[in-house]
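COURSE: Structural Biology Practicum
ASSIGNMENT: Worksheet 4, Part C
STUDENT ID: 0417
INSTRUCTIONS: Below are two proteins. For each, the amino acid sequence is given first, followed by its structure token string. Answer the questions at the end about the second protein only.

PROTEIN I
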Amino acid sequence: MVDRLSDTLRFYELMDRLEGRVCGTRFLAECTGGMGWPRRGLYFFLESGETRSRSDAGLRVVRVGTHALKAGSKSTLWGRLSQHRGTARAGGGNHRGSIFRLLVGIALAHRSGIPLPPSWGLGGDPGTAARRLGMEGAEVRRSEAELEASVSRYIGAMPFLFLGVKDEPGPASERGFIERNAIALLSAYREASPDPALTGWLGRSSNRERVRLSGLWNNNHVDEAYDPSFLDLIEIRIDQATSP
């Protein structure tokens, strides 16, 4: 039988250890691809103001993610992080390439009371969205630009940690095992979490039930049970971690 509070406490103890191994949290707004990132790994985003309730002091992890879960995938850890960051120079981004960006954008629009662009999340690219809506592609990009920039600012200011894991891409990857079990442990979707989202958390303005109830910027795995053995695996990989 699992002890969720004890496992959550251990998870954050491991995050503290990871923070020491990689020389602190990063901010995507300050990151570049030339910082020596491990080729494959996981990331753990925290959020300012989202403090933990029962698992000691500190910020709460609000998103867990990885990449290259399909066999043959060539994606890298930095490649995935850069999709979440958006375009550094222009300050925009592509929410169609990042579910994290899509979810944050929806919540930002709802919180501010501004209309969500009708093309948001529609189609695989602005051109496809434009055709479905009977608009020009340039018009779609203009209508989304302000919200994309707001998303970049919001995500860019969120501290995060990363953990290198050198496994092969595929659905049975070690990274995938860690990702889904970390999400399941931290999620409040199925049962009360030791560290619920605070009343003012932006995700409470989401139109996605899984975000609102889980307290996470994740859609997948929030309704699953977790296997506590993933914590042993994280510990092993943290002991092998180095700072880029």
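PROTEIN II
(use this one for the questions)
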Amino acid sequence: MTADAVRQRETGAGSRRRARELVLQGLYERQLSGGSDEAIASSLRSSREFASADAEYFGELWRGVTDRYSALIDTVAPKVDRPIDALAPIERGLLVIGAFELAHRLEIPYRVVINEAVELAKRYGGTDGYKFVNGVLDKVAASVRGDEIRAASRR
């Protein structure tokens, strides 16, 4: 799939964004309540909002971030200027989602990954949380997608 096709799919119906929103909601619940991943995913799938989400992407993203949560935190932690536990749950969740997509969904351009995380941070995070999310994911992208970033800068 070309980068343009991915961008069009990302911005088209917003179904992937809705999937990301639901995963973010699930991570928030997971962080605060400690519920099981299966129970949280089941609850999200039965929500009214799920009808407008890309169900397949939701499943992939949920499994990816929950199965690799510790490794994703380890990827993000060196790029953050404070302890990970001190981050607001929304920002922490967005960083995990962004780190997963940057490292494991290489067909999605890094700029799209960062933009999606920033837009969700503007909607759900603290006042300037989007700036923080942008800065951290820029650093993560540089470490996991350096070749893509260098190629984009030569254009």
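ANSWER KEY EXCERPT:
Q1: The chain has nine helices and no strands.
Q2: Residues 1-13 have pLDDT under 50 and may be disordered.
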